[in-house]
Amino acid sequence: MPTVFITGGSRGIGAACVRAFAAAGWQVAFTYRASREIAGRLAEETGALALSADQREYAAVERAAAEAKSHFGPPDAVVCNAAMAEQKLFQDITDADWQRMLDVNLLGAVRVIRACLPDMLHRKQGSIVTVSSIWGQTGASCESHYAASKAALIGLTRSLAQELGPSGIRVNCVAPGVIDTEMNAMHSAQTMQELAEQTPLGRLGTAEEVADSILYLCSARASFITGQVLGVTGGF
Question: Is the pLDDT of residue 27 over 90?
Fold first, then answer.
């Protein structure tokens, strides 16, 4: 059975990934930062392994990756999903805000990949999927630090795809549009309705639809796909 290591798996797109991979017959290990009770229920529901880890700390990421390997063996796929979002006017974003955003969204993914990559290199196989955002491609008013961190993930993805391709490792990115998740709860109902109306398909996306795309990119069906950014946006 193939094994996947998913970050930020206790809610939203991450939880949908845990369920999708488990249903497809994968062995699943996922990290969570604070939602211990929710993570425990999800682990019980799916048979996945829940691991506490704050991806701002490399030692914590290393411990989680090592525990997942001890439990299931080396990962066949890694999904870098854990992230944060924040709305602020550009002039109100402090250096500390910038540092925290980049530390979680960009460097967090870097730490996860660094911890899992040696086994993939040794086996000369594997798939890595990063989770960016449509805002990482288009930019976003009042979310410049978030959009910048997600744009950086795209650059990381494309660079690693070139670097790791000769070792048989594929690296791709999913860029969700407006998805009906807890992370978007910071927007008002009116704003979410307006965003749905701006989406050509006329609705918000679901976490399950994003998870299905991530599962596809990690599967053998995507064996000749690397360095790509797949927009799951409803045409937004």
Answer: yes
Model pTM score: 0.95
Q: Are 133 and 150 in contact (CB under 8 A)?
A: yes
pLDDT digits (tens, 9 = 90+) for 124-163: 999 999 999 999 999 999 999 999 999 999 999 999 999 9
Dihedral angle, C-alpha 60, 65, 71, 73, nearest 10 °: -170
- What CATH number has the domain spanning 3-225? 3.40.50.720
CB 151 within 8 A of CB 109: no
Contact of 2 with 27, CB cutoff 8 Å: yes
Domains of the chain, by residue range, sit at: 3-225
Res 153: pLDDT:
98
Q: Does the pLDDT at position 217 exceed 90?
A: yes
**Catalytic center residues:** 146
Counting DSSP H helices and E strands in the chain, the numbers are 9, 7
In angstroms, the CA 69 to CA 212 distance is 24
**Dihedral angle, C-alpha 224, 80, 11, 208, nearest 10 °:** -10
Contact 82, 130 (CB under 8 A): no
Q: Are the CB atoms for 95 and 80 separated by under 8 Å?
A: no
Phi and psi, residue 140, nearest 5°: -155, 125
